[in-house]
Specification:
Blueprint lengths: L2 H7 L4 H17 L6 H9 L3 H29 L2 H18 L5 H29 L5 H29 L1 H22 L13 H12 L2 H32 L3 H4 L1 H21 L4 H17 L7 H29 L5 H29 L4 H34 L4
Helix pairs in contact: 2-7, 2-8, 4-6, 4-9, 4-15, 5-6, 5-8, 6-15, 7-8, 7-12, 7-14, 10-13, 10-14, 10-15, 10-16, 12-14, 13-14, 13-16, 15-16
């Protein structure tokens, strides 16, 4: 991270800086293991890819439940301690995974991981929205993505080398990174929950979901975003196993692929966001979805490390324009006292994609051909592109109608 990034960061509150550095610590640790988790589990239980991928469905199912309750809990109890709970819980999951060796044991741990992950995403996004005024949020979310990806730039390369010695070392550092961030928040962060939310009853808090579910533009965004997230999951979860099993690319080499993704975000995210935030969000998200589709679909044409590396570069270009735009879009749609619930529903997109994509990819691989995984990724990405293009067209039409009805120039 260069001096310009530090200058940008200096314009934000102290607590946001704490989140930035805590994210860097935790992601560095976690990314030492998660790119290789399916390889590790497949080796431990010695089962087909479709069976191992079913663990992600367990993770996603508990994550769906967790994301639904995370919003009301975050909006009622506050952001800080929910964040601490999720981070420390995830640290314990990584620690116990280092000792697991059976499919049932991994299933239990993946279920707990599914509980903790959405809680973190919801409370973190809500805290950022509390801390940062609307005009600064695009850059704020971009900075946190930069921090996250700086950790990913470091972690997979180190983790890939570390797995040569022992996977246990990688699991230990993942647990340490998560727990360290949790402790930093516990001792140094303050609560950001808007005061008026605290007076709501539990029933009132959960009834707020009815308002969210009545927001048609938001639900259209969510449905389309699931398709794009599925495209991303194909790449992140299944490409390491595909490269390892089909082309004998070792973890120590493959680690450079997620590192490339992270370095691109570190180097370019803030500056690309400063350009994309000036443009309408829906066309930008359509462009990002198209690049996701091309990047993931191109894996089917490759048979080497450098080919897969280029595919990741293309997909990352889509990520750079799509992800901060999507986070900002949700934050702008959500009322201040319901951000946690909007973030909860938005967070379901990842859980739904994480539950569907690996099982779908595993089925395509085991029953058609390994390369069929990437045709599936191409299809879901193009469907996401079409969805956002149609939403953008509808939005333009509604805007023109509104201007005519109000006789505005």
């Amino acid at each position: 991270m260069n001096l310009r990034i530090f200058n940008v960061l200096s314009n934000y509150p102290r607590q946001f800086k704490l989140m930035f550095w805590g994210m860097l610590i935790s992601t560095t640790g976690a990314s030492m293991i998660w790119p290789f988790l399916m390889i590790y589990i497949k080796g431990q239980v010695n089962l087909p890819l479709s069976s191992v991928a079913a663990l992600t469905t367990i993770n996603a199912t508990t994550g769906l439940f967790s994301a639904l309750i995370a919003g009301p809990i975050t909006d009622r109890l506050g952001r800080k301690w929910v964040l601490v709970f999720s981070l420390v819980g995830n640290g314990l999951v990584y620690l116990f995974m280092s000792q697991a060796s059976t499919l049932p044991a991994f299933a239990v741990l993946m279920a707990f991981s599914g509980i903790f992950n959405p809680v973190y995403r919801v409370s973190s996004d809500a805290m950022v929205a509390d801390l940062i005024p609307p005009e600064q949020r695009p850059d704020a979310y971009a900075l946190l993505r930069l921090s996250n990806n700086a950790g990913i730039a470091i972690g997979p390369s180190l983790g890939g080398l570390m797995t040569i010695l022992s996977y246990s070392f990688a699991f230990f550092f993942a647990a340490f990174g998560m727990t360290a961030y949790g402790l930093l928040l516990a001792f140094l962060a303050v609560e950001t929950l808007p005061a008026r939310t605290i007076s709501q009853s539990v029933a009132q808090t959960f009834r707020g979901y009815l308002q969210v579910l009545g927001d048609r533009p938001f639900l259209s965004f969510v449905a389309t975003f699931i398709l794009v997230q599925m495209t991303s999951v194909f790449m992140w979860v299944l490409l390491p196993v595909y490269a390892h099993d089909q082309f004998q690319i070792p973890e120590s080499t493959y680690g450079l692929i997620p590192t490339t993704n992270a370095l691109m975000v570190v180097l370019f995210q803030v500056f690309i966001t400063r350009f994309t935030r000036k443009l309408p969000p829906l066309p930008i998200m359509a462009l990002g979805s198209f690049l996701y589709a091309i990047g993931v679909g191109s894996v089917a044409l490759g048979d080497s490390f450098i080919a897969f590396w280029f595919s990741m570069v293309i997909m990352t270009m889509g990520e750079l324009v799509l992800m901060p735009t999507a986070s900002t879009y949700v934050a702008q749609l959500a009322p201040a006292d319901m951000r946690g619930r909007y973030m909860s529903i938005s967070g379901l997109t990842w859980n739904a994609a994480y539950g569907l994509a690996p099982v779908t990819g595993g089925y395509l691989s085991d029953n058609i051909a390994p390369r069929a995984i990437w045709v599936g990724g191409l299809v879901t990405g193009l469907a996401g592109f079409l969805g956002y293009a149609l939403l953008a067209k509808k939005h333009r039409s509604e805007t023109r109608t509104h201007l005519v009805e109000n006789r505005l120039p």
